[in-house]
Design brief:
heterodimer; A: 112 residues; seven-stranded mixed beta sheet; four-stranded antiparallel beta sheet; 11 strands; globular; B: 111 residues; three-stranded antiparallel beta sheet
Chain lengths: 112, 111
């Protein structure tokens, strides 16, 4: 039982490049979310999903896309990276009806 | 809309001193409130939630609906309590159970 696995742990991108941050969970959790963590701003919700095939926007969705084709995977795509997207990204999952989210270890992204 | 505010970005206390991390929220319904903790180089983990009214690692938090607050308290801080603490609010299922975090408070417990 690996929990929530995020890859890569670190990434440097050039402005304008695209990439996908991977998130996988093996707990059969229905809910999955992506957050970005910035100093002084806490964690802000980017996108979330309540089940396979269902996604919705959070507070700061611009510049990011998600899809949820399976229960296990919830990738986050940066379409055209910008320096403002330099951040630490966390994926989290939760079973429906439970209260606690399980977080991944994060991906530290730098856009130059 | 749901919002969480943690007014102190940094909090520094000495070992053995009481500590209180403040959290205020706004939400129109009946929220669930949580405290999450992130130790250095570790992932976020749930510390406690208001419904269970439990004490974890000596920490407690009481939901005050009148003041819309959920402050985290510990009577005697320890050095290992040094970490980033996030207050979080979860709305109802109709909002997709979105978890909204505050800005975080970095607690440092000095020897």
């Amino acid at each position: 039982n690996a929990g929530v696995t995020q890859t890569p742990k670190f990434q440097v991108l050039k402005t304008g490049q695209s990439m996908t941050l991977q998130c996988a969970q093996d707990m059969n959790h229905e809910y999955m979310s992506w957050y970005r963590q910035d100093p002084g701003m806490g964690l802000r919700l980017i996108h979330y999903s309540v089940g396979a095939g269902i996604t919705d926007q959070g507070e700061v969705p611009n510049g990011y896309n998600v899809s949820r084709s399976t229960t296990e995977d919830f990738p986050l795509r940066l379409l055209s990276a910008a320096p403002s997207q330099t951040s630490v990204y966390f994926c989290a999952s939760r079973r429906a009806g439970s209260y606690g989210y399980t977080f991944g270890s994060g991906t530290r992204l730098t856009v130059v | 809309a749901q919002r969480v505010t943690q007014p102190e970005k940094l909090l520094s206390v000495f070992k053995g001193a009481p500590v209180e991390l403040k959290c205020n929220y706004s939400y129109s319904g009946s929220p669930e409130l949580f405290w999450y903790v992130q130790y250095s180089r570790q992932r976020l983990q749930l510390l406690l939630r208001h419904i269970s009214r439990e004490s974890i690692k000596g920490f407690t938090a009481d939901l005050n609906k009148g003041e819309t607050s959920f402050h985290l308290k510990k009577p005697f801080a320890q050095e290992e309590d040094s970490a980033m603490y996030y207050c979080a609010l979860r709305g109802g299922e109709t909002s997709g159970s979105r978890l909204t975090f505050g800005e975080g408070t970095q607690l440092t417990v000095n020897p």
